[in-house]
């Protein structure tokens, strides 16, 4: 039986927004940890670490996020390791974020003038101290804007979790649309929620990038 799209349906979609936010927060937090490890491995002195990190990045940047979700969810279940959609989505998105943030932060690390790293080496600082005291503090300032920009992409990417049955904003829209058969109204509402989440972050990333560009030209 088809029912009208009313206040209750709107509230249901709005309520599922919390799961989009929760999934984004977990994936971004885990991705920051994994991304830092990957970035440091990419610029490490040991070639084995660089090769592993490069391979990790190429795999997750070279395959669609949807395929990664499928492999984690269906692959583990078929292998006899039952996993629910919530955990599968969190794991897949965390690995995805780790690869992209790792490459973003690697670029920020190597953007630090080479002379400063050479000076730190001449002073006798080891790799860990060079990163801790010289390179990372400067790279962090460079990385803020692109990191916020990636967060916008990650929030939108959580919509793919609906394919494996995780009920977040997009999946809520599908459920309500199946009951009301008002796709324009339902998915227009879903799109509006994504816009309200992502647009302020996009503006923030643009302003940070502009501020950094002005600071470097002084």
Q: What CATH architecture do you see? A: Orthogonal Bundle
Mean pLDDT: 91
Largest sheet: none
Q: DSSP strand (E) fraction? A: under 5%
Number of discrete helical segments: 8
So, the CATH homologous superfamily?
Answer: MetI-like
Shape: elongated
The computed structural class is mainly alpha
CATH topology: MetI-like fold
Proportion in helices: over 70%
- Using the coordinates above, name the CATH class: Mainly Alpha
Total discrete domains = 1
Structure report:
The chain has one domain (7-217): MetI-like (MetI-like fold), CATH 1.10.3720.10. It contains eight helices and no strands. The mean pLDDT is 91. It is mainly α.
Brief summary:
This protein is mainly alpha-helical and 218 residues long.
Defining key terms:
elongated, mainly alpha, single chain, 218 residues
List the helices and strands and how they pair.
Layout: H1 7-42, H2 47-61, H3 65-78, H4 85-111, H5 114-122, H6 127-157, H7 169-180, H8 183-217
Helix pairs in contact: 1-2, 1-4, 1-7, 1-8, 2-4, 3-4, 4-6, 5-6, 6-8, 7-8
């Amino acid at each position: 039986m088809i029912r009208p799209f009313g206040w209750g349906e709107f509230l249901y979609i709005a309520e599922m927004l919390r799961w989009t936010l929760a999934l984004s927060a977990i994936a971004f937090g885990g991705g920051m940890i994994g991304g830092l490890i990957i970035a440091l491995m990419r610029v490490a002195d040991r070639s084995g670490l660089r090769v592993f990190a490069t391979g990790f990045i190429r795999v997750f940047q070279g395959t669609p996020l949807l395929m990664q979700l499928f492999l984690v969810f269906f692959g583990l279940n078929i292998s006899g390791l039952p996993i629910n959609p919530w955990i599968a989505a969190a794991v897949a998105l965390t690995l995805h974020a780790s690869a992209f943030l790792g490459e973003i932060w690697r670029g920020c690390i190597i953007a630090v003038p080479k002379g400063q790293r050479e000076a730190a080496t001449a002073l006798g600082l080891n790799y860990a101290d060079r990163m801790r005291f010289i390179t990372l503090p400067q790279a962090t300032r460079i990385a803020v804007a692109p990191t916020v920009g990636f967060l916008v992409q990650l929030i939108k990417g959580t919509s793919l979790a609906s394919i494996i049955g995780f009920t977040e904003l997009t999946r809520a829209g599908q459920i309500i649309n199946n009951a009301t058969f008002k796709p324009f109204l339902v998915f227009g509402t879903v799109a509006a929620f994504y816009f309200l989440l992502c647009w302020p972050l996009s503006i923030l990333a643009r302003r940070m990038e502009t501020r950094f560009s002005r600071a470097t030209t002084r």
